[in-house]
Design brief:
mainly alpha, two-stranded antiparallel ribbon, 16 helices, 2 strands, 73% helix
Length: 324
């Protein structure tokens, strides 16, 4: 069996071999641009890994894996427009490098290209694979809309937040694994189990990101610690704090949320102090462990020898102990 690193390398080489028409350049050059500026290629690599553990030929799954990566980058291109983000992986975002209209239309073309790649799977499993892919794509769009809608709401429940990150982040991980499993010859039960593994792990992963944004090491995390607090982003930590804060503490928290001119360092320190007072970090860790536990339970139930699941186990373990 191939390691995650080997599969990531395989995907990278396949991405470098992708080619698009020369005309019109403003439609196709942004696709090559965003695909060239890096990324860990985790989702497509995990699709290949799922195929591999069920005894399939990973080379027959490369087109589907590329479809997942092209789709993922399409969502990033459009997310950057909505977030007005100037940088993506240290490089100018497409709408900054070209303009917003180019980024919208080029992103649309990426969705078409992703479908063309996914349609190259074996005809025998084409219908179920396309159903998974389309349902996943719809879920990601729903998650993004929920996320944007939350920005204008004073309160969001923890349940609503978990559903949002499940759709925006986790279903793509689950969908990639399930498609890879089907290409590898998995039965419906095991394909569903590996989907659950990816989905629950994806939720745990995003919750851990929320924790790291407040409590991570800035030298390792790669971005400003406390950025979510500064921007009033509705994370699991903030939502739980709003649920649990009483009287004076609730008022103090709201004071910082309502002050757009607050000194960033003081705001991060004050809100982090409230989180500590309410034991929010521990609550978030318990939620992470709960969703990770559901992921491992699903993985253990897959009808394969433990040795064939070891790389997925190791991948999940690495996500749960990361500090960046």
């Amino acid at each position: 069996m191939k390691t995650l690193t080997e599969l990531q390398t395989l995907i990278q080489k396949a991405i470098e071999q992708l080619s698009y028409p020369a005309q019109p350049p403003d439609l196709y050059e942004p696709i090559s641009y965003i695909l060239s500026i890096g990324g860990k290629r985790l989702r497509p690599a995990l699709l290949l890994m799922a195929c591999d553990i069920f005894g399939g030929d990973v080379n027959k799954a490369v087109k589907a894996a590329l479809a997942i990566e092209v789709f993922h980058n399409f969502t990033l291109m459009h997310d950057d427009i909505m977030d007005k983000a100037p940088l993506r992986r240290g490089k100018a975002t497409v709408h900054e490098h070209w303009n917003q209209n180019v980024a919208i239309l080029s992103g649309d073309a990426m969705m078409v290209e992703a479908n063309k790649l996914m349609l190259q799977v074996d005809d025998r499993i084409l219908r179920p694979v396309m159903d998974i892919f389309n349902n996943t794509a719809t879920g990601v769009c729903e998650g993004q809309q929920f996320d944007m809608s939350f920005e204008s709401r004073d309160h969001v429940s923890a349940k609503e937040y978990i559903n949002m990150i499940r759709l925006k982040t986790a279903v793509l991980l689950g969908g990639a694994l399930k498609i890879g499993a089907l290409i590898g010859g998995a039965n419906e039960k095991d394909a569903n189990l590996i989907y659950t593994f990816g989905e629950q792990l994806g939720i745990a992963f995003q919750l851990q990101d929320d924790v790291l944004d407040v409590y991570g090491d800035p030298d390792k995390f790669g971005k400003q610690v406390g950025g979510d607090i500064i921007s009033n982003k509705k994370t699991y930590l903030l939502i739980k704090a709003q649920e649990l804060a009483r009287a004076g503490t609730a008022g103090e928290l709201q004071k910082w949320l309502n002050n757009p001119k607050a000194d960033s360092r003081k705001k991060v320190a004050a809100v982090t102090g409230i989180y500590n007072q309410l034991n929010i970090r521990e609550q978030a860790k318990q939620a992470i462990q709960s969703y990770a536990g559901k992921a491992f339970t699903a993985l253990n139930e897959i009808d394969l020898p433990v040795t064939q699941k070891q790389y997925l186990n190791a991948f999940a373990d690495s996500l749960m102990v990361r500090d960046y």
